[in-house]
Amino acid sequence: MGRPPRGEQSRMKKGPWTPEEDIALVSYMQQHSLSNWRSVPANAGLLRCSKSCRLRWTNYLRPGIKRGNFTVHEEKMIIHLQALLGNRWAAIASYLPQRTDNDIKNYWNTHLKKKMRKLRNSRDGQADDGDDSTDASQSTVPRGQWERRLQTDVQTAKQALHDALSVHSNPIKGLNLFDSNPLPPASPQASTSEGYASSIANISRLLQGWMKGHPNSAKNGPTTTPCPKNFVMNSSYSSEDHDSNMFRRSFSFSSDASLSTELQNRNNLAHTCQTSLSFRAGSSSAQTSYMHGKEEVPAIRLFEKWLLDDGSMATPGLDGIW
DNA sequence: AACTTACACAACCGCCGCGAT
DNA sequence: AATCGCGGCGGTTGTGTAAGT
């Protein structure tokens, strides 16, 4: 194999992706089953490194990604999964299949971290000291206190995750987190997706412009314009479209990529559950939950039970954020 | 209107784990 | 067992835009 020569690497393009590049990548991804990312840039005719292509695909172009503001439900999930798992955004993202880890990470860093800090300060009656840590890992706390705090945090996480999973009468006893229909926004403000919408709208408009100039699009009316195989660009884009629906109207795919994505996410969930159990195994206060008599309980069931049982938990300070 | 600041999000960088050789 | 390349992850930076002065 071998790395690309330095000179070649330096010729790689950086910075924001253009609509043409997006189209090239989407087109390639639709026509080829992905064997390795390394071959993608050359085969798709892109002057990008494989990493950049992978990132662009997974964080932006991949079908099934939900754009726009986070719902209260999602927000709760993130906050408490973060308390539970730490900054393991990929693991957290596996619980929110339509969101990317990058998206969640950004949302945490720009919104939730501040929110949590504010909350903590108001609870502790302290001024904002700029301390970003929000989990049980604060090293300044003495060990005994740290353990109690960890227990409290875990307890808090359990309660709130329980709340989050129960929102909108979610008929779970199991983790039914894969509803393909996004929950309705909790407030009119939350329903606006201007930030993403504007950027996607821009891309869509640029794509339209590009398609107009494209020979294949000549004489085509405002209907769908076949571009690559399996890839259809709908040029009747409306700026009133929202979130992923808008995106789907701009890019519609005939493959079942989103389905496979969901299946993958389900696998990720199972993996995450196992990971979480391993995580907890490191905590002396949590090890007993592994033992359910002599019965061997599947990891996912155990984790589910751990999350959802014990409904009498206090949620110190977390109510009232929303 | 011009400039500055804050914010949101996209993209990059560096590290790590894993599998292949 | 050691090495290498790839893919994935989390932290950080860059960039465009909105809000404020």
From TrEMBL:
Stored Pfam families: Myb_DNA-binding (PF00249)
GO term, biological process aspect, one: response to auxin
Residues annotated as domain Myb-like: 9-61, 62-112
InterPro entries found in the cross-reference section: Homeodomain-like_sf (IPR009057), Myb_dom (IPR017930), Myb_TF_plants (IPR015495), SANT/Myb (IPR001005)
Subcellular location: Nucleus
SMART domains: SANT (SM00717)
Protein's UniProt keywords contain NAD: no
Record GO terms (molecular function): DNA binding
Polar residues bias locations: 217-235
Chain residue ranges for the region called Disordered: 118-157, 211-235
Keyword check for Zinc: no
Keywords noted in UniProt: DNA-binding, Nucleus, Repeat
Protein name: MYB transcription factor
